[in-house]
Amino acid sequence: MIRIWAKVIKNDKIINQTLFEKSSPMDYSEFFSYVCEICETLDIPTPVVIKTHLFNYAKYNVVRFGASDFVESIDFDKLVLENAFI
Length: 86
Hints:
Layout: E1 2-10, E2 13-22, H1 31-42, H2 51-60, E3 62-66, E4 78-83
Antiparallel strand pairs: 1-2, 1-4, 3-4
């Protein structure tokens, strides 16, 4: 089961959040599609996902996307995806 807690942060405060859940096991080849679904739910642009982001999520259970990771301009500081152990 996949549970990803997505937080949109501005000025060190969470301004929007969602819990992404899938009943299937984690498939890292599908990570970009997970990020797309999360961003669509949050109504924010989708960041560019590179190998480093994927490795950070796999190894540390968290990945942070800053303004430089988005092609479009954003009105928040960062997007944080964290593995939600429940």
